[in-house]
Amino acid sequence: MSGIPIIYLVAGEPSGDLLGARLMASLKAKLGQGGIRFAGVGGPEMISEGLESLFPMSELSVMGLTEILPHLPHFIRRIDQCVGDVQVTRPDVLITIDSPGFCFRVARRLRGQGIPLVHYVAPSVWAWRPGRAKKVAAFLDHLLALLPFEPPYFERVGLPTTFVGHPVVEGGAVDGDGAAFRARHAIGAGVSLLSVLPGSRNSEISRLLPVFGDAVSILAAAHPDLRVVVPTVAPLRDKVIEATKDWPCGVIVVNGTKEKFDAFAASDLALAASGTVALELAMSGTPAVVAYKVNLLTAWVAGMLIKTPYVNLINIILGRPVVPEFLQKDCRADLLGRALSDLLQDKELANKQIAAANEALIQLGRGGPSPSDRAADVIFSIINKQKGSLK
Cα–Cα distance between 204 and 273 in angstroms, integer? Predict the structure, then answer.
């Protein structure tokens, strides 16, 4: 190993790219720009931090069995290429980030070759397929977990695991400027504003937006001054504009992270698809109602496998339904409209949700060292231990 640490990172999708970039920034902050060298596979965020990606990360951003099968031969070639590059580079540590379909295959091939193998983002064994914990313990050396209750699942099968915190706590959701957003879009201070977040995939937009639109109509009937903002991603902007053009209130469609967080800060409440955005709303202090619906086959399979009673992490961590959830057959406009109306009319109810959500966010790392700093400390300790064992 060289005097300058070489850290090899592999990310396979945008969320992992962002995690990797933040980790790289924290590592550089601790050692200085010239005190560390990076190699591996990543996207634009990691490239902006100094990574020269072995191949475009976008080739790995394939979701689902039907999507991956046509690309399987190429997928296997990229695994071989990545493994070969790690063997030539001989890094001080390999950090694979989420994307287990690709990352675990790479790590498994490198087991026993003298390179510490670290994976960032623990598989959700607490929710489904608990047997995976033992399988990953057979080839990984260390696991970085996002959730405080995850380490015991892996430590009991012999895999050292460190809780570093959830990336939402350093994602900037607390920095939104609500007054500026309202000024930009001519929304008076006394006007009720609802954020509607139907997801970032075409399938989510198609399935959820019609139900969300009907729920908005119910809420608007009781609150004629209601305005709605729909934060979305640029590729879906036109589709969302078309789908919301007949809604019975003023609808603003925005995209971009800053506009999204400003919209959260400006909003009195939100209606959101289940996912990370629900945590971002909690970070911004925006009371919310969460809903989700998938096709019947997917729902049946999920019902057979998933063991947790909630889908929202706030509710999972606290063990009670702090944020209202309406899933599958309960994802109905009348139920959503009623829950939104309750939050809008009852400030005490809304404030209780915000306060309870903050309890969960503290458990996710809010108020402490950033998750990327915690992860960087773990990586340095692994490198130092490895160097010491070779003396």
Answer: 8
pLDDT above 90 covers what percent of the chain?
74
Q: Give the pLDDT score at 69.
A: 62
Q: Indicate whether this model's pTM tops 0.85.
A: yes
β-strand partners of 197: 272
Find how far residue 94's CA is from the centre of its chain: 22
Model confidence pLDDT, tens digit, residues 219-264: 999 999 999 999 998 888 999 999 999 998 889 999 999 999 999 9
Measured CA to CA, the distance from residue 1 to residue 3 in angstroms comes to 7
Termini Cα distance of the chain = 11
**For 250, how many CA atoms within 13 A lie in the half-sphere containing its CB?**
12
- Please give the backbone phi and psi of residue 115, each rounded to the nearest 5 degrees, phi first: -110, 120
Distances (CA, A) of 105 to 10, 27, 75, 111, 160: 12, 26, 11, 10, 20
Alpha-carbon separation of residue 258 from 24, 93, 246 (angstroms)? 23, 34, 26
d(CA 41, CA 8): 8
Residue 267: predicted pLDDT:
97
The single-letter DSSP state of residue 33 is G
Residue 195's closest CA among 173, 168, 171?
173
Category of 99 on φ-ψ map: left (φ > 0), alpha (ψ -120 to 50) or beta? left
The edge-to-edge listing of strands for the beta sheet with 161-163 is: 37-41, 6-11, 93-97, 117-120, 142-145, 161-163
- Mean per-residue pLDDT for 373-391? 83
Can you list the domains of the chain with their CATH numbers?
6-165+368-389 (3.40.50.2000), 173-363 (3.40.50.2000)
Q: Residue 112: pLDDT above 80?
A: yes
CB 243 within 8 A of CB 213: yes
177 Cβ contact partners less than 8 Å away, ≥ 6 residues apart = 262, 265
- On the CB side of 99, CA atoms within 13 Å amount to 32
For residue 252, the cross-strand partners are 229
- For residue 117, the surrounding DSSP H or E stretch is strand 117-120
Gap between the Cα atoms of 253 and 232, Å rounded: 7
3-state secondary structure of 231: strand
